[in-house]
Write a structure and sequence with these properties.
There is one protein chain. The chain is an alpha/beta fold. The protein has three domains: 74 residues, Winged helix-like DNA-binding domain superfamily/Winged helix DNA-binding domain (Arc Repressor Mutant, subunit A, Orthogonal Bundle), CATH 1.10.10.10; 112 residues, D-Maltodextrin-Binding Protein, domain 2 (3-Layer(aba) Sandwich); 93 residues, 3-Layer(aba) Sandwich (D-Maltodextrin-Binding Protein, domain 2), CATH 3.40.190.10. The chain has ten helices and twelve strands. Helix 1 packs across helix 2, helix 1 packs across helix 3 and helix 1 packs across helix 4.
């Protein structure tokens, strides 16, 4: 008799082409645009999606008359895992196509910005490059900038609001992410009826804090620190507990957080950016930056190219 146990390699009917087609369609690309990016015909992309849904036994995308309406509940559950599979595949292929990274690098990462799987990406980089010694420092973004200025880091990832001007022209700066900053709470508030604004906020030096206080000052409102912490998780928990109004990027909102916007009279906040800076001229620094940019599944671009 044949052994019908599931293969440890997974369902071999599912291909990377199936997954790439699904991700492109889930991101809002139509069938024609997805076909152009995959170098396949529109009908081939349609068949890839249909085949994937047949294998999984569920519908991933809502569509009507050839138009994508959005993800189904199953599609939303499936998408994060697919993105991780494709990112890890790209990481492994890229690592093997390049010389092995070696040497000692000191990296700064933010503890005041939610970065999806950044620590995992650094760990995988170390696994793929056994002769690379990574020393990671986690701190507030403002503290990482000070360490960069003092030549204490080879590479740093930090957040900023507004234009960032490198203090050293030799630094290479890459934009990893840009997203809106929001006032958040667990209940609705009328801005005009509030005399003082209780803030759940990061300490001095945080650009979220500076942006919030500047916006309040322009509207002649006083904001006080109802709860202050350098911990990202503590800030989120304090907002959820109703201790005050927080200032967080879109990716960091908890399920019970309500965005306070124009309807409630709250002033608009600026966009927040996640930047990566290569401060040292080591070849390993460039290699590591390339790896992290790829693993984040974000398109990196020089700061000078988007301003």
């Amino acid at each position: 008799m044949f052994d019908c146990q599931p293969s440890p390699l997974g369902d071999r009917r599912v291909t990377l082409e199936h997954l790439r087609a699904f991700v492109l369609l889930a991101e809002g690309n139509g069938f024609q645009q997805a076909g152009l990016q995959l170098y396949r015909s529109q009908s081939a992309v349609t068949q890839s999606l249909k085949r994937l849904e047949e294998i999984l036994g569920c519908k991933l995308l809502e569509r009507r008359q050839g138009h994508i309406l959005g993800l189904t509940a199953d599609g939303e559950r499936f998408l994060p895992a697919v993105n991780e599979i494709l990112a890890r595949t790209s990481e492994a292929v890229s690592a093997m196509q390049q010389p092995e990274i070696s040497g000692r690098l000191l990296i700064g990462v933010p503890d005041d910005f939610k970065v999806v799987d950044l620590h995992g990406a650094i760990s995988r980089c170390a696994e793929l490059n056994r002769n690379l010694r990574l020393e990671v420092v986690s701190a507030l973004s403002s503290q990482l900038l000070l360490q960069l200025d003092n030549s204490g880091l080879d590479l740093a990832i930090f957040k900023c609001v507004g234009d960032f001007t490198p203090s050293d022209p030799r630094w290479q700066c890459h934009l990893l992410r840009r997203e809106p900053l929001h006032w958040v709470s667990t209940q609705r508030h009328d801005f005009d009826r509030m005399s003082d604004i209780p803030l759940v906020i990061f300490p001095d030096g945080c650009c979220y804090r500076s942006a919030a206080l500047a916006a309040l000052d322009q509207h002649q409102k006083y904001g006080y620190s109802a709860y202050t912490s350098a911990s990202y998780d503590n800030i989120r928990a304090a907002v959820s507990a109703g201790l005050g109004i927080g200032v967080l990027p879109a990716s960091a909102l908890a399920e019970d957080h309500i965005i306070l916007g124009k309807r409630e009279g709250f002033p608009e906040l600026p966009m927040v950016e996640l930047l990566m800076v290569q401060a040292s001229q080591k070849r390993a620094t460039q290699q590591l930056a390339d790896f992290l940019t790829l693993s984040s599944a974000m398109k990196s671009q020089k700061v000078s190219e988007y301003r």
